[in-house]
Amino acid sequence: PIEIGTKATVEGEKEVDPLDKVTLTDTVSYTGLVPGKEYKVTGVLMDKETSEKLLVDGKGITAETVFVPETKNGSVDVTFIFDATGLHGKEIVVFEDLYRENVLLATHADINDEGQTIKVKNPEIGTTASFEGEKEIDPLDKVTLTDTVSYKDLTPGKEYRVTGVLMDKSNGKELLINGEKVTAEATFVATEASGSVDVTFIFDATGLHGKGIVVFEDLYRENALLATHADINDEGQTVKIKNPEIGTKATADSKKEITADKITITDVVSYKDLTPGKEYKLTGVLMNKATNDKLLIDGKEITAEATFTPKATTGEVEMTFTFDARELTVETEVVAFETLYRDGIEIAVHADIEDEGQTVKILPLHGS
Predict the structure, then answer these.
(1) Considering only Cβ atoms within 10 Å of each terminal Cβ, which end of the chain, N or C, has fewer?
(2) pTM (2 decimals)?
(3) What is the model's pLDDT at position 21?
(4) Beta-carbon count within 10 A of 262 CB
């Protein structure tokens, strides 16, 4: 009797990534043929889940091979080439028919035959974004965001590429810095089916106070998109740029008015949303409210600065301005302006010429 059996593989394997060009080889073994005569094997791919023909773009996938056996028993390969990008997780079964002169001689069509079956993998990725392990960072000019992309159901030994883009959580659109997207990518060879790879984004965050940033990632093999992780509400994918703020309260000997002499103005600068354990610098300058310009004594500005490392996100630090005010012959309101820096980057300013809290009135020694 004439019989056929089939063994389906993709490059010898029973599973394949959902690539845009998959080559499935079905080795059809036969018995009882007549050597020297021409035969034809025709095959079709079946969807195991539905037991119907597998459809890609609405079409079935078929292949055939015409051959002349040299012996009555042997084998012949039938090759199917198809786009598997939409077939994540599908089990595909190859059905084959053997003909001679258009007469059907044998069929092998068993939806449950493991030998006839291959599986399209279902790669997935998840991501965890952080700044050196933290979910928030100050608005510095060079911020390094690391996105750890975990993957599963890849093919060990194959090269993959992960590409990422930063998204603005407030509007769900790509984050633009100087009009450009922030992207990064990493290429890696999977050593196991599951694992993780880091994708690193370096960008200028100075204008992004208070922004929530979400990392979207895509996984490719041979330029075929295999998996995407793009959820604007996923906490794991999200980091935040802090929004540091400062407020100031200036006094002279705890008073808001003082007579011109050698004067010490103490400015208590309150801060919030800083990063504990990091070093900050405050710089201050006294302004003349009447002119809305810097106060000049002997032609010089009156400045002060303080460096500090906060233990908590909120707190306060004192700044001291000391100067000789005797040359002020008219009543003068001075306003303390303060700027907060980290790593040389300005991250907060309090400079309101009308702010009573920042203002001290200096009265001339001998009237005006």
Answers:
(1) N
(2) 0.87
(3) 96
(4) 9
